Amino acid sequence: MAGRIRRQLLASKLDAVAQQAQARQATPICPLCERPIPPSQADAHHLVPRSKGGRHTALLHRICHRQIHALLTEAELARDHCTVEALKAHPGVAAFVRWVRTKPPEFIERTRKSQRLKD
């Protein structure tokens, strides 16, 4: 009897470890800041804005997505920054990414529109 119980306990522990590993693999990674995206912080970003005919999206952290739209207009996104690599090359986005990489994945903060877009 003790052998059967031990086998059941071992099997349940192995199942729990396998489920944890599967959950870690299922967590998407933000292509901008390269941190895991919790389900509550996931936003789909149209690489080319829908108003400019875009269809393809990239899954980003909500804070990363908001910062992109705080720094760049839809016309700029469609014309010059329609890939993740182009977004990373923008000086304002690059500075933001360097800062946010040090934060935990669940981190959220109010995003402020750039003064250039306010005017």
UniProtKB/TrEMBL annotation:
Q: Which UniProt keywords apply?
A: Endonuclease, Hydrolase, Nuclease
Question: Has keyword Cell inner membrane?
Answer: no
Mind listing the GO molecular function terms for this protein?
endonuclease activity; nucleic acid binding; zinc ion binding
The UniProt entry, under InterPro entries, shows:
HNH
The record's listing under Pfam families reads: HNH
- Domain (HNH) spans 30-70
Q: What is this protein called?
A: HNH endonuclease
- Species assigned in the record: Aquabacterium lacunae
